[in-house]
């Protein structure tokens, strides 16, 4: 470790020495029983410390004595010695133990390393570490450059060949994308057991079956993906049972067999992906796993007609599954020199088979030996630290991904898009739940009236006795009495508000599972300052705003897996903000299933263990639909329930609580990049806050709300069924190439902003209205089109294509506001290019003066705009092969 300047911030009860070190009497330091060492690593070998994120610290402890020991460890950063994180440890006699606890890396660090300090107490006495020092000093290597890629591979390899196809392919993809070759390799026996440990990384690759024997780790990975992570499963390198273990009932595919191919040609399923790869022959056949997929998976590439790479959505995240060996996705990099390859092999050899860097725990003699040299940070496989990187200045790779893999990697690699902070989304709503009682009007008026009356009576009495000069001291005295009375009333009103915790949470549920991820923001309110009790028995993490508080040492202390509490946490009068994160499981599953019926969407909704569910809304990139919930969980989202652009709840008259919810939901939806969103249809619903397991002061009440969101799974109606598709489920796009009449579409619609373009010239566009792909095949029966326009458009025309000819359906002259058109000719609504094709023409070429007129020799332009364009489609489901 790199010892930094001595600036100890010892646990509660230990004083700091300004000269450096810990100010502890010699008699308080045990002579040589319990020993410890601190290792800056995650519990799964995850060497990732990112400012503003949670990390993990390992503590190795040994107790050679004949008596058990009760230890308390504390770790803190040099810049903030009063903010500590630690754990209680019960250590049996003659034993050693490796434990870990979370630590929050403060935001704002831009240095490659952060100095930390660690101290361990045994029954209130400070313990020496393995280097015989009371105060342990070291540094964390921070990761400031994204993306961060994690890899889970086998701990023991069958050969000592440093070449490793999964590792080499991941490095090749990173280098090709212009990133470093550093990878966070999770190499401990057990993977991180909580989702929060994975949040610093952007994508994770699994090429080992050992995750099947670590249910806690697999569950944490599942929760991380459900919250928006990206996972790559290399099924050729693992047991195919991992698909069922990870997806559960959501995996409907089937494993067929494992075979070996001497010739490989990768074929795209979509022409726009890439060109087919060349036929490659291998001296040694490479593995290929054959599986059968369902329409729920997006197959991008095939080999011999079998899926070679496909995507599957899980919650808000995406999972890439490859069934072909990594050798089939890459080739030798001709530009890599022999010298670079030798350096690469030496670096890999040192990284994969180097020293672990974890000092052994052994029994110490009564008189401690001279302290050895502090160990340097380990060079673990792919460990993200500058020491490893410095041995590899040339960021090159012996291999290069082929064109299909580059297309897959462009989707998979890269940093996760930045998310709006939960504070910016819900802080206003959380603050509204805490208010102060205003003194009653009659009491305030009584004080003021008494002041005026007393002043008038005193003035009259003094005037009659010719002693008006006494008003000079009497009036200020009377004013002080009145003011003091108002202050007393205000204080009484403030202290009469009970201690409270207000919280607003954003919860991501994973359909078909019991898993969820929660992010929340809240405020702890106390009318009078005192120490606050705050903890949890069901995991999660709470970070409080420490500004303006006491300088006493505050510690977040873990006692067991999922059990923690804040120690010595003073609460000043008023509010203290806090952020909350938690991943967990519920007793009841998350269900969000729907299909189309005569009114619109109908389905079943169950939000785990949520209580008081209400104000549900279905949201797509093209609009929102109000949801009518029944007590049994069934719901209807009809075409008549489609919300306007400024509506986020279905109620016509909003209560105060609904007004707060509408503001928050608007912020949440606006924070999502609608173009990049991979979950096309989501359902949102409000419930009571999820605070099970949170330990609070007995007198503290809890107020707030939780916004639960889930992807909505849509099932295709049975063949022959008639149904209605509401407009938010029918996005439209320009026809590819020229329309059937030979005209190329004009840019009358801005698809980036999802709104009409401001124009002063006439324009025509062929639009394809696309229903969810799962509904194909179907036949359109009728449609109701609504278009809203503004400005001097002059003319608006809607047309279709029927029997090889253009058919004008409706024409409006000088349109203003909203127009509606019923299309009941099925021949015009024939499905083409995956949807219903209609032509929209706007503007009047015969009257250019409407938008361009001359005044004083200058051209004055006016613009028109299509404000909205929506269509509700009645359709009939067809059997496969029809239509």
How is this structure best described in words?
This protein is an alpha+beta fold and 883 residues long. The protein has five domains: 1-144, Immunoglobulin-like, CATH 2.60.40.10; 149-351 and 390-412, Rossmann fold; 422-434 and 497-715, no CATH class; 441-496; 722-877, Jelly Rolls. Helices cover 16% and strands 38% of the residues. Strands 3, 4, 6, 7, 8, 24, 26, 27 and 37 form a nine-stranded mixed sheet that branches. It has an eight-stranded mixed sheet with strand order 10-9-11-12-18-17-16-14. It has an eight-stranded mixed sheet with strand order 25-29-22-21-38-36-32-33. Helix 7 packs antiparallel against helix 10 (656-670). Residues 1-32 and 348-394 have low confidence and may be disordered.
Class per helix and strand makeup: alpha+beta
Largest sheet: 9 strands, mixed
Total number of helices: 10
Distance between the termini: 70 Å
User: What's the shape?
Assistant: flat
Compose a concise summary of this entry:
It is built from 10 helices and 53 strands.
Comma- or semicolon-separated keywords:
883 residues; Immunoglobulin-like; Rossmann fold; eight-stranded mixed beta sheet; 16% helix; disordered N terminus
Question: Mind sketching the topology for me?
Answer:
Blueprint: E1 35-39, E2 54-63, E3 69-77, E4 80-91, E5 95-104, E6 113-122, E7 125-126, E8 136-141, E9 149-152, H1 165-176, E10 184-185, E11 203-206, H2 215-226, E12 230-234, H3 241-247, E13 254-264, E14 266-268, E15 280-292, E16 298-303, E17 306-314, E18 317-322, E19 330-332, H4 338-353, H5 386-390, E20 399-401, H6 403-412, H7 422-432, H8 441-464, H9 471-496, E21 500-509, E22 515-526, E23 530-531, E24 534-536, E25 541-544, E26 554-560, E27 563-567, E28 570-571, E29 574-585, E30 590-596, E31 600-607, E32 614-620, E33 623-626, E34 628-629, E35 634-638, H10 656-670, E36 681-687, E37 694-696, E38 701-711, E39 713-715, E40 722-725, E41 732-734, E42 749-750, E43 755-756, E44 763-769, E45 778-790, E46 795-802, E47 805-813, E48 817-823, E49 831-832, E50 835-842, E51 852-855, E52 858-861, E53 865-877
Parallel strand pairs: 4-26, 9-10, 9-11, 11-12, 12-18, 21-38, 30-39
Antiparallel strand pairs: 1-2, 2-5, 3-4, 3-6, 6-7, 6-8, 13-15, 14-16, 16-17, 17-18, 19-20, 21-22, 22-29, 23-28, 24-27, 24-37, 25-29, 26-27, 30-31, 31-35, 32-33, 32-36, 34-35, 36-38, 40-53, 41-44, 42-43, 44-50, 45-48, 45-53, 46-47, 46-50, 49-50, 51-52
Helix pairs in contact: 7-10, 8-9
């Amino acid at each position: 470790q790199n010892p930094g300047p001595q600036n100890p911030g010892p646990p509660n009860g230990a004083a700091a020495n300004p000269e450096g070190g810990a100010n502890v009497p010699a008699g308080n330091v045990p002579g040589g029983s319990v020993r410890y060492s601190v290792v800056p690593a995650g519990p799964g070998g995850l060497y990732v410390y990112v400012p503003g994120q949670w990390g993990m610290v390992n503590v190795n402890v040994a107790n050679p004595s004949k008596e058990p020991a009760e230890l308390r460890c504390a770790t803190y950063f040099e810049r903030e010695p009063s903010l500590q994180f630690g754990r209680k440890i019960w250590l049996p006699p003659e034993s050693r133990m490796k434990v870990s606890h979370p630590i929050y890396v403060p935001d704002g660090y831009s240095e490659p390393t952060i100095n930390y300090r660690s101290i361990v107490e045994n029954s209130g006495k400070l313990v020496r570490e393995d280097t015989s020092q009371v105060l342990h000093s070291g540094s964390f290597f921070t990761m400031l450059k994204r993306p961060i890629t994690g890899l889970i591979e086998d701990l023991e390899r069958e050969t000592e060949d440093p070449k490793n196809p999964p590792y080499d392919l991941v490095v090749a993809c990173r280098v090709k994308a212009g990133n470093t070759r550093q990878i966070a390799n999770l190499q401990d026996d057990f993977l991180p057991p909580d989702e929060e440990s994975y949040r610093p990384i952007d994508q994770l690759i699994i090429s080992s079956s050992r995750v099947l024997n670590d249910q806690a780790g697999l569950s944490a990975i599942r929760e991380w993906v459900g919250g928006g992570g990206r996972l790559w499963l290399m099924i050729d390198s693992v047991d195919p049972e991992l698909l069922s273990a990870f997806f559960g009932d959501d995996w409907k595919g089937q494993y067929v067999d494992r075979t070996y191919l001497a010739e490989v040609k990768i074929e795209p399923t979509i022409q726009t992906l890439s060109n087919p790869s060349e036929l490659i022959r291998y001296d040694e056949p490479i593995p290929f796993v054959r599986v059968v997929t369902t329409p729920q998976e997006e197959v991008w590439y095939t080999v011999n007609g079998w899926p070679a790479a496909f995507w599957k959505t899980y919650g808000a995240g995406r999972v890439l599954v490859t069934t072909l060996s990594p050798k089939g996705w890459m080739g030798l990099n001709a530009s890599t020199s022999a010298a670079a390859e030798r350096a690469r092999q030496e670096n890999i050899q040192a990284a994969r088979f180097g020293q672990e860097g974890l000092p052994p725990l052994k029994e110490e003699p009564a008189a401690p030996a001279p302290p050895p040299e502090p160990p340097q940070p380990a060079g673990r496989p792919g460990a993200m630290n500058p020491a490893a990187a410095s041995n590899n200045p040339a960021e090159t790779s012996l291999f290069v991904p082929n064109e299909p893999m580059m297309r897959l990697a462009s989707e998979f690699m890269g940093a996760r898009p930045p998310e709006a902070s939960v504070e910016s989304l819900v802080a206003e709503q959380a603050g509204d739940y805490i208010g102060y009682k205003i003194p009653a009007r009659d009491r305030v008026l009584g004080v003021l009236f008494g002041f005026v009356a007393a002043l008038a009576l005193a003035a009259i009495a003094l005037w009659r006795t010719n002693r008006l000069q006494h008003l000079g001291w009497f009036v200020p005295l009377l004013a002080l009495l009145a003011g003091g009375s108002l202050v007393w009333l205000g204080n009484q009103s403030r202290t009469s508000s009970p201690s409270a915790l207000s919280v607003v949470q954003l919860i991501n549920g994973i359909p078909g599972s019991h898993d969820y991820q929660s992010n929340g923001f809240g405020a702890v309110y106390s009318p009078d300052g005192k120490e606050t009790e705050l903890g949890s028995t069901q995991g999660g993490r709470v970070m409080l705003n420490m500004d303006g508080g006491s300088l006493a040492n505050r510690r977040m202390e873990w006692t067991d897996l999922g059990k923690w509490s804040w120690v010595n946490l003073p609460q000043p009068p008023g509010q203290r903000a806090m952020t909350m994160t938690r991943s967990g499981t519920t007793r009841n599953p998350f269900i969000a299933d729907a299909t189309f019926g005569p009114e619109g969407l109908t389905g079943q909704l169950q939000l785990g263990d949520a209580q008081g569910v209400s104000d549900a809304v279905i949201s797509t990139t093209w609009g929102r639909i109000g949801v009518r919930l029944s007590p049994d969980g069934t719901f209807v989202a009809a075409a008549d329930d489609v919300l306007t652009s400024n509506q986020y709840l279905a109620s016509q008259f909003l209560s105060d609580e609904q007004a707060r919810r509408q503001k928050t939901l608007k912020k949440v939806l606006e924070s999502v990049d609608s173009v990049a969103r991979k979950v096309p249809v989501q359902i949102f619903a409000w419930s009571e806050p999820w605070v099970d397991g949170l330990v609070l002061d007995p007198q503290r009440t809890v107020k707030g709300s939780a916004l639960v969101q889930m992807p909505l799974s849509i099932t295709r109606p049975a063949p022959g069924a008639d149904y209605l598709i509401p407009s938010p489920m029918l996005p439209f796009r320009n026809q590819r190439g020229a329309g059937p009449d030979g005209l190329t579409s004009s840019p009358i619609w801005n698809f980036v902003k999802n709104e009409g373009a401001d124009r002063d010239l006439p324009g025509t566009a062929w639009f394809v209205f696309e229903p969810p792909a799962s509904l194909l095949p179907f036949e359109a029966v009728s449609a109701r089109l609504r278009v809203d326009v503004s400005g001097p458009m002059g003319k608006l025309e809607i047309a279709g294509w029927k029997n090889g000819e253009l058919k004008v359906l409706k024409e409006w002259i000088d349109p203003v506001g909203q127009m509606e058109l019923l299309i009941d000719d099925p021949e015009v609504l024939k499905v083409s290019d995956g949807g219903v094709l209609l032509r929209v023409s706007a503007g009047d070429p015969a009257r250019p003066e409407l938008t361009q007129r001359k005044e004083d020799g200058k051209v004055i332009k006016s613009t028109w705009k299509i404000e909205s364009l929506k269509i509700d489609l009645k359709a009939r489901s067809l059997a496969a092969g029809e239509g």
